[in-house]
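Incident review: delayed structure delivery

Summary: a single-chain prediction request sat in the queue longer than the usual turnaround. Root cause was a stuck worker, restarted by the on-call engineer. No data loss occurred. The affected request and its eventual output are reproduced below so the record is complete for anyone auditing the incident later.

Affected input:
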Amino acid sequence: PRAALAAAAVWAAGTAEFAWRRIAPGPRTRAEVTTMALTSALIPPLATWHWLRGVVQHVGVPQWRGLPDLVLFDRDGTLVHDFPYNGDPEWVRPVEGAKEALDRLRARGVRVGVVSNQSGVARGLITREQVEACMARLDELVGPFDTVQYCPHGPEDGCACRKPAPGMVKAACAELGVDPARCVVIGDIGADVEAAAAAGASGILVPTPVTRREEVSAAPRLAPDLPGAVEQVLGGRW
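Output delivered after worker restart:
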């Protein structure tokens, strides 16, 4: 067909020009001319093959999202081992790898914060002062944090801050001037990722023995542990 002949002629002309540009500077010995002519014919199809292989390999690979502006962490069961209604700073014990994971985010310029339900205050089991003392101890161990939000209300209070309501996530974003769409919430139960979704943020669930099976099934993203969740964030998978 004429189209094929025309394409072949264009390819041949282009290859000849490419070969001449490589041969012209010299020394133009027979060996060099032969080598340049052969490699000039091979380079374009090989380069095209490498390009096509790269395209095929990256089909379906999610687009790089970059880094978020803010990562918010649940406290009990996520950043620290969960001792229910703990009011003693001495019992604030970070999970393995927490400090290193947070430092990785800080090193990349990502701000970090805490969003924590503390219904023990409403139940009369702990005081606000005890909650804040435990938060201060957490800051000493794995801080500093750019924002700390906690809800002192109980489930029956109908507040806008207790997770899965979005109040604390929105408040943290507002405090730091961050668009919730550029925020990630990491937690160990469904309420954490539900609060993220309600605020317009992304959520990553890190299941623990207290995480219900249906919460795991419903989670938009899962990580095996806290360092793994941070690895996802730093890899743009949030």
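Verification: The longest helix spans residues 30-57.
Action items: add queue-age alerting; document worker restart procedure.
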